[in-house]
Inverse folding.
C-alpha cells in the first residue's frame, strides 16, 4: 500500500501526462519510421571538421512559442542548448550486464569492505520493544481521533480499508510471542541463499533464488542492502541507510529529489531552497567528492551527469517543511563515450505498450548516490551495461534546425488531446541536451540494443483543470523530465518509457 501511495505522489510530482495517451505518428508527420530498418540505414559522415555544435549548426540558446487549440495548448521554449565538446559521435552495441557473483562481490567490496553483513529478515524481525512502540503509536493516533493515519481511505462500499482497532489487537497478540531482539546471522551477499522465515512452528527454510536482502553494520551506520534479479535482464541494487529520524515504521518515509519540492511555491509540497540548505552541514563539493570516490571504485566508467538536492520526509501526503526530517545532495552518474555522455533523464524505462504484452522489458542503466552530513545515505544502481563494438563510426547527424522542426510539430501532435482533459496547459521547455540514449527491440531481443545520439527537451508545465478545481505549476528550471526525445540520426521520436 505504501509503495502505491509513493508511486502516486511521484507521478503527481512529475506532472504525468498519462491522460494524453501515446499518439501514433500521423501519416503526414515529418519523422521517419523507427525500428531495425531505420537502424540499418545509419551512415557514417566520413571526415568532418570542427566541434559538434558547429557541425550540427546548433545555437547556444533556442526560443520559440507555439500556440495551439485556440490558446489552450502553449509550447513555450526558452532553453539553453547543451552540446558536448566533441568532434564526432558513434553508435555502440550495448547489452545487459549479467548479475553474477563477480558483480555482487564488487559492489559489496566498494561499499562494505571489512564490514559484517547479516541476513536481513532475521535482523529486522519485530522485537517486543518494536511491537510495543507500534501499539503505543496506534493508540496515540486513536486518542487524537485519527482513525486513518496512513490515508488508506475507504473501499468501494465506503468502509475504511484500515481498521485501527484490529491492528492494535493483532499487535497485542503478536507481542505475546515476539522475541526480545532480532537475530544477527552473518552472511555473504549472493543469490540462492537459504534463510528462515516465519515464527515458531510455522518457521520454514526458504531460498532467495533471484534476491538478496542483508543488513550491513558499518562505522558510518547501519544499511539495508537489497539485490534483485527477479525481472531479468533488469538488475536492481539498493543500499539505504537506516534513519533514526523516522517516526512511525508503518508510515511512509523516503527520499525525494529536490526538483519535486522546489518547482512551485504554491504547492503544499513546496520546500524553499533555504530550508533545505539549513539542514545541510556538508558542502556540495565535499559531498560530490564522497560520491565520486565510491562510484569510481565500481569501475564502470561513470561520470557525474547531474546533481540536485534530496529531502528525507515522513507522511502519506508528500514532503513539506514540517515533515522534512533530513536533507542531502543527490548525484546522478552516467557513461561518457568519446566525450558524449549518456543523458540523465528521470524515466527508468522498462515500460510495455499495453497491459496484455508478454514481452520482458529492459530498463535503462542508472546510478544515483545521495550524500548527507554523515556520508552516504542511499545508493541506487540499476541495469549496468556492457558496452560493445562501435556499430557506425562518426555517424551522420541531422542539423539542429531539422530537429527543431520535428520537435515543434510533434509536441503539438502528441499533446493535442490534452485539451480533452484540461482547460489549458503551457509547457515550459528550459533545457535542450544532446547525448546518448539506449534503444532496443524487445520483441526480438530484450537484453541487447544500441546507444544512439538523441536530442532531449527538458522542462515542466502549468495546467488548469476543466472544472477549475485544480492547477499545477512547474517552471521546468530544475527538471530532469524530457518531454520529447528525438533520434539525432534519423529524426524518429523515441518513447523513453518504452526505450524505442
Amino acid at each position: 500500500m505504501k509503495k502505491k501511495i509513493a508511486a502516486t505522489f511521484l507521478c503527481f510530482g512529475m506532472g504525468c501526462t498519462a491522460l494524453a495517451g501515446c499518439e501514433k505518428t500521423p501519416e503526414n508527420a515529418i519523422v521517419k519510421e523507427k525500428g531495425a530498418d531505420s537502424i540499418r540505414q545509419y551512415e557514417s559522415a566520413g571526415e568532418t571538421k570542427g566541434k559538434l555544435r558547429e557541425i550540427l549548426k546548433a545555437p547556444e540558446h533556442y526560443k520559440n512559442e507555439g500556440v495551439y487549440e485556440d490558446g489552450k495548448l502553449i509550447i513555450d521554449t526558452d532553453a539553453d542548448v547543451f552540446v558536448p565538446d566533441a568532434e564526432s559521435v558513434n553508435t555502440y552495441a550495448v547489452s545487459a550486464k549479467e548479475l553474477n557473483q563477480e558483480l555482487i562481490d564488487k559492489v559489496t567490496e566498494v561499499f562494505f569492505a571489512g564490514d559484517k553483513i547479516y541476513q536481513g529478515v532475521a535482523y529486522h524481525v519485530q522485537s517486543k520493544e518494536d511491537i510495543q512502540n507500534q501499539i503505543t503509536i496506534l493508540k496515540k493516533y486513536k486518542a487524537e481521533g485519527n482513525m486513518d493515519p496512513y490515508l488508506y481511505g475507504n473501499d468501494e462500499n465506503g468502509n475504511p480499508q484500515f481498521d485501527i482497532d484490529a491492528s492494535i489487537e493483532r499487535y497485542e497478540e503478536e507481542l505475546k510471542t515476539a522475541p526480545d531482539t532480532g537475530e544477527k546471522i552473518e552472511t555473504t551477499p549472493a543469490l540462492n541463499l537459504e534463510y528462515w522465515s516465519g515464527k515458531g512452528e510455522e518457521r520454514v527454510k526458504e531460498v532467495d533464488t533471484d534476491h538478496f536482502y542483508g543488513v550491513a553494520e558499518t562505522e558510518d551506520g547501519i544499511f539495508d542492502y537489497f539485490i534483485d534479479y527477479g525481472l531479468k535482464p533488469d538488475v536492481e541494487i539498493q543500499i539505504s541507510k537506516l534513519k533514526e529520524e523516522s517516526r512511525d515504521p508503518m508510515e511512509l518515509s523516503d527520499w525525494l529529489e529536490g526538483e519535486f519540492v522546489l518547482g512551485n511555491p504554491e504547492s503544499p509540497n513546496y520546500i524553499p531552497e533555504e530550508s533545505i540548505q539549513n539542514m545541510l552541514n556538508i558542502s556540495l563539493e565535499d559531498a560530490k567528492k564522497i560520491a565520486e570516490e565510491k562510484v569510481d571504485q565500481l569501475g564502470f566508467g561513470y561520470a557525474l551527469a547531474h546533481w540536485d538536492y534530496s529531502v528525507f520526509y515522513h507522511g502519506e501526503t508528500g514532503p513539506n517543511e514540517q515533515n522534512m526530517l533530513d536533507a542531502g545532495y543527490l548525484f546522478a552518474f552516467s557513461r561518457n563515450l568519446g566525450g558524449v555522455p549518456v543523458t540523465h533523464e528521470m524515466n527508468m524505462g522498462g515500460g510495455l505498450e499495453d497491459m496484455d504484452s508478454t514481452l520482458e522489458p529492459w530498463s535503462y542503466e542508472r546510478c544515483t548516490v545521495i550524500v548527507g552530513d554523515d556520508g552516504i545515505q542511499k545508493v541506487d544502481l540499476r541495469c549496468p551495461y556492457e558496452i560493445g563494438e562501435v556499430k557506425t563510426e562518426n555517424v551522420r547527424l541531422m542539423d539542429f534546425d531539422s530537429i527543431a522542426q520535428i520537435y515543434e510539430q510533434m509536441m503539438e501532435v502528441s499533446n493535442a488531446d490534452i485539451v480533452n482533459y484540461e482547460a489549458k496547459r503551457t509547457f515550459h521547455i528550459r533545457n535542450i541536451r544532446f547525448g546518448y540514449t539506449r534503444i532496443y527491440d524487445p520483441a526480438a531481443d530484450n537484453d541487447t540494443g544500441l546507444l544512439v545520439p538523441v536530442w532531449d527537451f527538458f522542462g515542466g508545465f502549468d495546467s488548469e483543470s476543466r472544472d477549475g478545481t485544480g492547477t499545477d505549476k512547474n517552471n521546468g528550471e530544475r527538471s530532469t523530465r524530457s518531454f520529447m526525445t528525438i533520434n539525432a540520426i534519423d529524426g524518429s521520436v523515441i518513447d523513453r518509457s518504452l526505450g524505442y
